[in-house]
Design goal:
The protein is α/β, with parallel strands linked by helices and about 180 residues long. The chain starts with a helix and ends with a strand. The protein is built from nine helices and seven strands, in the order H-E-H-E-H-E-H-E-H-H-H-E-H-E-H-E. The structure holds NADP nicotinamide-adenine-dinucleotide phosphate (NAP).
Length: about 180
Amino acid sequence: MGTLAIQLAKHFGAEVTTTASARGDTLVRRLGADHVIDYTREDFAGALHDFDAVLDLVGGATLEESFRILRPGGRLVSIAGVPEPLTATKDLDAPAWVTAAFWVMSLGIRRRARKAKISYRYLFMRPSGDGLRFLASLVDAGKLQPVVDSSYPFDRIAEAFAALEQGHAKGKIVVTF
Ligand SMILES: NC(=O)c1ccc[n+]([C@@H]2O[C@H](COP(=O)([O-])OP(=O)(O)OC[C@H]3O[C@@H](n4cnc5c(N)ncnc54)[C@H](OP(=O)(O)O)[C@@H]3O)[C@@H](O)[C@H]2O)c1
């Protein structure tokens, strides 16, 4: 997700700071990252402050720490953290009990966001032809580069998933048919 998020943020004119390990440093800089923090060596929350927006792709402690680097009025969007009510109504078109469950689950993080004057959203991917057409047009124009980590034939799909679960892929892991 990071390999696409960095390029899209740059496309829309943002100045981009990202965390990455030394293994990913060259790649994220090639994709356009302006500043890189090695998360294995440095606490990003101690080094950064007054950001307008954070896109959290990691969750857990990284999501918690992200609050510290945002300015009041900033936006925190996570795809790996805690879902909140809008996830159910906007992203999933889910029944009322799911909205209620997400409301309860996200009580703590929403309270924290309110206190810090930060808007928190969990984003759940939903299929969108328009969205994919837009991304494809950027790819065709050479403005968005899909990064492929590795490719597996269908009969080795278990190996593909095992590699994905290691959590160290540099881009997409592709299964070919
Ligand atoms: N909400 C949704 O709709 C949605 C959709 C897709 C994915 N997700 C979630 O989003 C997360 C990311 O997905 P993904 O496909 O990008 O996973 P991934 O391909 O497994 O991401 C692995 C990459 O993340 C790097 N990484 C790990 N911890 C990091 C940190 N603290 N800071 C910076 N980089 C770090 C690893 O770098 P090193 O190996 O070099 O450390 C590796 O290059 C997952 O939790 C996934 O479940 C959610």
